[in-house]
Structure to design on (136 residues):
């Protein structure tokens, strides 16, 4: 997390498991112009059912005053990628793109789509497997 302002900002991080169960992390305050890395594994160590899921970072301040980036790494399997969190009010596109590739035939991938609004959202995912377009 990164505080781009010249004053402290307090953020509330909430983790959601794949069943939508919420786990609120104690509030995090970052001093002005400071950043800090956190290990999600430390937060979920004693929480059952949080082997996978999503997260939300909430704060009161200017848009983009608090930045967040999630880095997923598995050095044993040579996997690493970053997810730059976007403020929901700043995301105006009707399209979200992602990229994942596999160099062997022994890996699996799961796709999770989360609706953060209070209204129903219709999603039509399209996947390319072996260069062939398929709809999910």
């Amino acid at each position: 997390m990164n505080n781009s302002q010249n004053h402290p900002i307090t953020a509330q991080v909430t983790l959601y498991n794949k069943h939508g169960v919420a786990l609120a992390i104690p509030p995090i305050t970052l001093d002005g112009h400071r950043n800090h890395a956190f290990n999600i594994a430390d937060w979920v160590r004693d929480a059952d059912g949080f082997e996978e899921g999503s997260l939300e970072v909430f704060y009161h301040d200017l848009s983009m005053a608090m930045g967040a980036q999630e880095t997923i790494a598995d050095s044993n399997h040579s996997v690493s990628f970053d997810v730059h969190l976007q403020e929901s009010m700043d995301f105006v596109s009707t399209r979200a793109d992602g990229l994942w590739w596999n160099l062997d035939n022994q890996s699996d991938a799961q796709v999770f789509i989360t609706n953060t609004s209070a209204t129903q959202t219709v999603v039509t995912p399209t996947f390319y497997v072996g260069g062939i377009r398929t709809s999910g």
Observations:
- Residues 40-44 form the longest helix (5 residues).
- The chain has a mean pLDDT of 81.
- Strands lie at 2-3, 9-17, 22-24, 28-30, 53-59, 66-67, 69-74, 79-84, 126-129, 132-135.
